[in-house]
Specification:
The complex is a heterotrimer of chains A (about 450), B (about 220) and C (about 290). By secondary structure, chain A is of the alpha/beta class. Helix content of chain A is about 35%, strand content about 15%. Chain A is built from 15 helices and 16 strands. The chains are: A alpha/beta (about 450), B alpha/beta (about 220), C alpha+beta (about 290).
Chain lengths: ~450, ~220, ~290
């Protein structure tokens, strides 16, 4: 019989998940490490709605009447900015966290959709470079696998200060995923648990970042855009400082942003929601007079065309997807439920990327499991998803009368809750009220 | 006959562009006066003599070139070097040889904090002393210090090997003194020879990872 | 965040060149801090005539200052007005010019602050013509939407004292509350001001500069290089982790400090200088 029907009441404070967490800590003596991003409910794009056509605003016909989706990233300094067909990119995820097949699938899918993919904390693989039309090369505190040949082969460089899942934390990869190949790329002993630095080894602070960016430009003869990525915390100041330090593109990753492995406590309790960070970033760029000149990419819980349209309406130039891309490849698909259950999880709940036993073959280094993901099929699925995202966003933008996704504006939005209205700085639906405006 | 570039008259961009687009030859760079990113991203076997003090990231990501700084070097000299040789006649500032994968970095004077931080296979030989947190998270390669080492030497060390002739102010987490066996004396002798130094390997002590932090365990909780 | 420069002269024959040298040093750290700048200079007879009390002000013109303060002479330096007079000038300023912001006071020291490119500011300050025995300077990378002169360093919150700071404190909000609880007022939300007020408070209670800076290192979290100057000394200290840069150069004629070597390279005799990086958490003081 269902406990609730018996009149039993669960504590909201000490709910079953919390009880489990406390008991797990008591048994093991070590913090819980997992993948994915913040799982708790947060103010997000679902709390915003678009104001479509009305008596005073006219929609565009689908198909015939243009709603363009192209975006150029890195126009500020680089000789060769990135020209993408759609403003959704694939976020940085490492080979190591993901299988080689998964990285190849991401490259294939992104390229087919005319967008970019990004390396992660393990460096660049030939598969990824070979299958990616546009490849952004991450420059991280660990510098695993960093080398000038790959830097020159990249289309853009992303200096990573942090990510939304763990702003202030470094990379983490547990021993079961440090295979020969991964170990070789990262210059680590096979099978150990990777500890990573949380700060860059040779610069700290935006004043010294400016010199580092200068060096990276000098090494690559000023050809490639330099992105600066931050996990969302003091976003307004961070974006201003990134611009001052020379960023061509700023990437802001909200707390819903995923990871392959970090402490659960870090994921859930550090950082701010994407919805709260985005308007801060836009305001920072506008005050410096560089909005649209220094492009803004926003990530952290982007799940589809509606999230993308709303993020662009708030002023982002593009969004990036990580978790959603993996889900498109097949992560947490119901067909793997039996496999998840064997691991003590279930389809829709699986977040144990750190263990490397992923039945979907995505976040694993195991040869047999990895083989379950066909990169060509995975690439097709991702390309489909990116196409749907783009079409969904176009549908919404056309309904708002926009000829380009970038023509969406904050005035096209209203909020359903006070928190989301305050964070997004748009009025509560049906009112003129923006909580906190004027403060 | 070396190609002369005077950084008092020409921008660093011009020097680096020339280094990136010409076949290996020799260069004399005058009047660096603390300029940043001098001779970085070089990928041909140029011989480059920099006459004066350089700023940050001199010879960053060096491949194949032989770069000599006749003066001091700022933060991150030879950072992420892949191969080749970089020599600093004076002192080096923080993070010398940071994350370098290969090649040889020789500092005749002192290096500052975080010398060889996160080193990934390069050889770094310092004639003088190194500052705190040197070889922090050193993954591979060899660090030789003919003088003293500062606090927290080799903190969180992986497989880099460290040899110190003078005193070590303190050892970092998981870094321990290790036995000097014949193979280490031989290795050290080769490194000192490559650095054109005549210290006696027998005067050095060896430090390496205790490998206790290789797996996350509750017992190590205080080390994190 | 910013660039720091400082010059402490030992050789009297160099005093006519103080401003010129400080301006040259400042010009080399502009990229670290392009939005605003400030300098403090000690011993210039035009700005700080011997025997006169000196107050440096923002938000008031020389004409307004002279009108409000009988017997005072006011000198313009970009956004700053430097006023000298006999008697308790600070009290007179509080009474007669309550809307002005005091950015420095003493007998030997003038503080000049402004917004805009530091190289242009140095000219606007007339720095090339300034003489004296000691100067500190700071170029700022601002985050506030309105780049204001008040936000520029140095923070001078005690007579003849200056602090410039590269880096960021992590627990200054708490320390600010503690100092406020002891009756100390603040002019800004700037973390560096908290450092300056902490030191001034220690000095006012009789601690010497070394002790004040050691206590600061104990109390403040963060990454910081600090340059502190007083009426008779020049001090440098770095936090325990020492990630922010700092270089000191010393000759028989001068001691100088800067964030980057290229700022020291402009000094006469640099080729013979002893150049070193301060050790973490060690207080280096040079006295006149």
């Amino acid at each position: 019989m269902e406990p609730a029907s018996q009149g039993l009441r669960e504590s909201a404070t000490f709910d079953r998940a919390t009880i489990h967490a406390i008991q797990r800590a008591a048994e093991t003596g070590i913090y819980d490490i997992r993948g994915w991003g913040a799982k708790r409910k947060l103010p997000h794009f679902d709390d915003l709605l678009l104001l479509g056509a009305s008596m005073s605003r006219y929609p565009l016909e689908g198909y015939r009447e243009r709603c363009d989706t192209d975006v150029v990233l890195g126009t500020r300094h680089a000789k060769q900015p990135l020209r993408l067909d759609t403003p959704v990119t694939i976020a940085g995820m490492s080979f190591g966290a993901l299988s080689a097949q998964a990285k190849e699938a991401l490259g294939r899918g992104a390229s087919e959709a005319g967008t970019s993919t990004t390396t992660g904390d393990g460096g660049m693989t030939p598969e990824e470079r070979g299958h990616s039309k546009h490849l952004v090369y991450q420059y991280l505190p660990s510098r695993y696998g960093m080398n000038p040949d790959d830097l020159r082969a990249a289309d853009a460089i992303e200096v990573v200060l942090g990510q939304g899942a763990k702003p202030g934390g470094g990379g983490m990869l547990l021993g079961q995923k440090i295979t020969e190949r991964v170990a070789g790329m990262r210059t680590l002993p096979v099978g150990i648990d990777q500890r990573s630095a949380c700060r860059h080894p040779d610069w700290t602070g935006p004043d010294d970042l400016a010199i580092k960016i200068l060096e990276l430009r000098e090494i690559t003869d000023w050809e490639k855009p330099v992105y600066v990525k931050v996990g969302a915390t003091r976003t307004y100041y961070d974006v201003k400082l990134a611009v001052h330090a020379g960023a061509d593109v700023v990437v802001v990753d909200g707390m819903q942003g995923g990871t392959a492995a970090t402490q659960d406590v870090f994921i859930e309790h550090v950082g701010i929601p994407t919805l709260a960070a985005l308007p801060q970033a836009v305001r920072a760029l506008q005050e410096l007079g560089v909005h649209r000149e220094v492009q803004l990419i926003v990530s952290g819980g982007i799940r589809g065309g509606a999230d993308m349209a709303k993020a662009l309406a708030l002023g982002a130039d593009a969004v990036a997807i990580g978790t959603a891309a993996l889900i498109a490849l097949g992560d947490n698909h119901p067909k793997h439920d039996a496999g998840y259950r064997e691991l003590g999880s279930a389809a829709g709940y699986f977040d144990d990327y750190q263990d490397g036993r992923d039945p979907a073959g995505i976040s694993t280094q195991d040869a047999e499991l990895s083989a379950r993901l066909d990169p060509v099929e995975g690439g097709r699925r991702l390309a489909n998803f990116l196409r749907v995202m783009t079409m969904e966003a176009q549908t919404l933008a056309r309904a708002c009368g926009k000829a380009h996704l970038h023509h969406l504006e904050p005035e096209d939005l209203v909020a359903l809750t006070i928190e989301s209205a305050a964070m997004a700085r748009v009025p509560l639906a049906g009112t003129d009220w923006i909580p906190g405006a004027g403060l | 006959m070396a190609t002369l570039i005077d950084l008092g008259e020409r921008p660093v961009r011009e020097l680096n562009q020339a280094l990136h687009s010409t076949a290996a030859t020799s260069w004399r760079v005058l009047n660096p006066r603390g300029a940043h990113a001098v001779a970085c991203g070089v990928r041909e076997a140029h011989t480059i003599d920099v006459e004066g003090h350089v700023g940050y990231y001199c010879a960053g990501m060096n491949q194949h070139a032989t770069v000599t700084v006749h003066g001091n070097a700022g933060t991150g000299v030879a950072e992420n070097m892949m191969s080749g040789t970089v020599r600093v006649r004076g002192n080096a500032s923080q993070s010398a040889g940071a994350t370098a994968h290969g090649g040889l970095l020789v500092i005749d004077g002192d290096a500052s904090a975080r010398c060889g931080i996160s080193m990934k296979g390069a050889d770094i030989i310092v004639g003088g002393s190194v500052g705190h947190m040197s070889a922090f998270m050193g993954q591979a390669g060899r660090l030789v210090v003919c003088g003293d080492a500062g606090d927290a030497l080799g903190d969180s060390l992986y497989e880099a090997r460290i040899y110190v002739r003078g005193t070590v102010k303190s050892l970092g987490a998981d870094c321990v003194e290790k036995e000097m066996r014949n193979e280490h004396l031989t290795e050290l002798a080769e490194l000192l020879k490559a650095a054109e130094r005549d210290e006696d390997p027998a005067d050095f002590r060896r430090y390496g990872s205790a490998r206790q932090l290789y797996h996350f365990k509750v017992d190590n909780a205080t080390s994190y | 965040m910013c660039g720091i420069v400082g010059l402490h002269l030992r050789e009297a024959s160099l005093e006519p060149r103080l401003g010129e040298l400080l301006a040259a040093m400042l010009g080399q750290v502009v990229e670290r801090g392009p939005d605003s700048a400030g300098v403090a200079v000690y011993g210039d007879p035009r700005l700080t005539p011997p025997g006169r009390a000196v107050v440096s002000l923002l938000g008031v013109t020389p004409a307004e200052a002279e009108a409000a303060l009988p017997g005072a002479v006011a000198v313009a330096a970009d956004a700053t007005t430097v006023v000298h007079a006999d008697g308790d000038l600070l009290a007179a300023v509080s009474a007669a010019l309550p809307h002005a912001t005091v950015i420095g006071s003493g007998t030997d020291m003038a503080v000049l602050k402004g917004t805009g490119n530091p190289v242009r500011l140095a000219m606007s300050f007339g720095l090339a013509g300034v003489t004296g025995w000691q100067g500190v300077g700071h170029t700022r990378m601002a985050t506030e939407s309105a780049v204001t002169p008040e936000g520029a360093h140095p923070f001078s919150v005690g007579p003849g004292q200056c602090l410039v700071h590269n880096g960021s404190f992590a627990n200054h909000a708490t320390i600010r509350r503690e100092l406020r609880a002891q009756g100390i007022g603040f002019d800004s939300e700037n973390d560096s001001e908290v450092g300056a007020r902490f030191i001034a408070h220690q000095l006012a209670q009789g601690a010497d500069l070394e002790k004040a800076l050691r206590l600061l290192c104990e109390r403040f979290d963060g990454f910081y290089t600090l340059l502190v100057s007083t009426d008779d000394s020049f001090a440098v200290v770095r936090d325990a982790i020492a990630c922010k840069p700092a270089l000191v150069a010393e000759t028989a004629e001068w001691v100088a400090m800067a964030s980057e070597y290229r700022a020291l390279d402009v000094l006469p005799g640099i080729e013979h200088a002893r150049i070193f990086e301060p050790e973490p958490q060690e207080v280096y003081v040079w006295r006149r």
